[in-house]
Amino acid sequence: MPITSFHPPHRTLMGPGPSDVHPRILEALGRPTIGHLDPLFVGMMDECKALLKYAFQTENALTLPVSAPGSAGMEACFVNLLERGDKAIVCVNGVFGTRMIENVVRCGAEAIRVDTDWGKPVDVAAVEAALKANPDAKVLAFVHAETSTGAVSDAEKLCQLAQQYDCLSIVDTVTSLGGVPLYVDKWGVDAVYSGTQKCLSCTPGISPVSFSDKAIAVIKSRKQPVQSWFLDMNLILGYWGEGGKRAYHHTAPINALYGLHESLVMLQEEGLEHAWARHRTMHNALAAGLNALGIEFVVDAEYRLPQLNSVWIPEGVDDAKVRAQLLEEFSLEIGAGLGDFAGKVWRIGLMGFSARAENVRLLISALAKAMQDQGYQCDVEAALAAAEALL
Ligand SMILES: *Cc1c(COP(=O)(O)O)cnc(C)c1O
C-alpha cells in the first residue's frame, strides 16, 4: 500500500505550545518560495528584524530570527557568551532553568545553581546572594516565563542586579514574548531568545534572538571560537547583518519566515499593549470559570502567567483519561504536567491566537464534561456564566 498525503485534523491548541496558528499566517506559509538571496527576500528579512525589534522593545542591531526552534535560540545565547572556564549563575524554578544548566556545562563553563520552588518566581534575594558570593560570574541566566509551572519572574529586577554585579544577563522569553510586558532595552537585557509557536501564534521552528552592544563586544572579543559553527553570531551576522552584501551562511527557512513576518505584522496591527491586555482578559475569564468548576491554580495570582495556566488536577480525576477525551471528543489539546508536576497538574495555554473567547468557552465546557464523565460534580452553566461576565 502506498503511503498517501498527510491531512491532520483541525485541533484547538491550548497546551504549552504550539498555539493555534492564525489562518492569515497559514496562508502566508503557502506563498511562492523565492531565493533566499533574492533582493525581495532580503527586504523581507530586514522587515522581520524591524518587527522583532518592536516585539522585543529594543534598538539592538543584532536582533534576528535563528533558523531553528527556541532551544536553538537558548543554545545560541550560551555558546556565544560563554567560554571554557567561565562561570554562570543560573536560576532554576522549573524545567527550562535546568536546560540552561545543561547548556552552561556543555560550554565547558561552571554553573552556579540558584533554586526556587516550582510555581514561584525566581528568588531575587537568593540571586543577589549568589552574585555577591561569585564576583567572577560572567553571566546571570533565568527564564522570564516558566512554561513548566506558569510563573513569571521579575525580569526587570534580575537584569538590574546583573548590571549592578557586572554580569551579562541571558533571558528566556520563549513564552513571554507577545504575552506579557517585556522591555529588552528598558530592563537592560543583554541576550534574549524566544520562540514563534507560543504567543506569536506562528508555526514552530524559528527562534527570535537579540543581543545588546555589550554582549556583541564580548562575542567579538572571544579568546576561543564559538564551538557551534551554525550558531556562531560572528558568522550569522554576515547573512543577517545591516547593509552590505549578504553572504551565504545557510539557506533561510524561507516560507517559515513568511509566516513569522505575517505574525509580527499582526502583532504590530494589534499593538503590543493590546496583545498583553487580551492575554490578561482571557486569563481572567478562564480563571473565573475554572474556579467555579472547583479547580485551583498552582501559582499565586500575583505571579501567574496569563498565557500558561497551571492547575491542580482534582482528586479522583484521571489525568491521562481526561486529556485523551478532550482530544478525541473535542479535538482540544491541553498540556500535561512536566517533571515534578507530572500527573498532578494540567497546563492550559492561552497563547497568541489561542487567547480568544471561543477557546475559553470550549475549554470550560469540554473539561467539565470530561471530568463529569468520571463522576466529578460541577456546574458547567455557572462556570460559563462566571467566565462570560469577564469576556
Ligand atoms: C517552549 C520553550 C522552550 C523551547 O522552545 P522549542 O521551540 O520547543 O525549542 C524554551 N524555553 C521555554 C520557557 C519554553 O516554553
TrEMBL record:
This is Alanine--glyoxylate aminotransferase family protein. It holds the Pfam family Aminotran_5. The modification N6-(pyridoxal phosphate)lysine is found at residue 198. Its cofactor is pyridoxal 5'-phosphate. Keywords: Aminotransferase, Pyridoxal phosphate, Transferase. PROSITE patterns: AA_TRANSFER_CLASS_5. InterPro entries: Aminotrans_V_dom, Aminotrans_V_PyrdxlP_BS, PyrdxlP-dep_Trfase, PyrdxlP-dep_Trfase_major, PyrdxlP-dep_Trfase_small, SP_NH2Trfase/AEP_transaminase. The keyword Transferase applies. Gene3D superfamilies: Aspartate Aminotransferase, domain 1, Type I PLP-dependent aspartate aminotransferase-like (Major domain). One of its GO terms (molecular function) is alanine-glyoxylate transaminase activity. PANTHER family: ALANINE--GLYOXYLATE AMINOTRANSFERASE, AMINOTRANSFERASE CLASS V. Belongs to the class-V pyridoxal-phosphate-dependent aminotransferase family. GO terms for biological process: glycine biosynthetic process, by transamination of glyoxylate. CDD domains: AGAT_like (cd06451). The keyword Transferase applies. Residues 42-336 form the Aminotransferase class V domain. Substrate binds at residue 347.
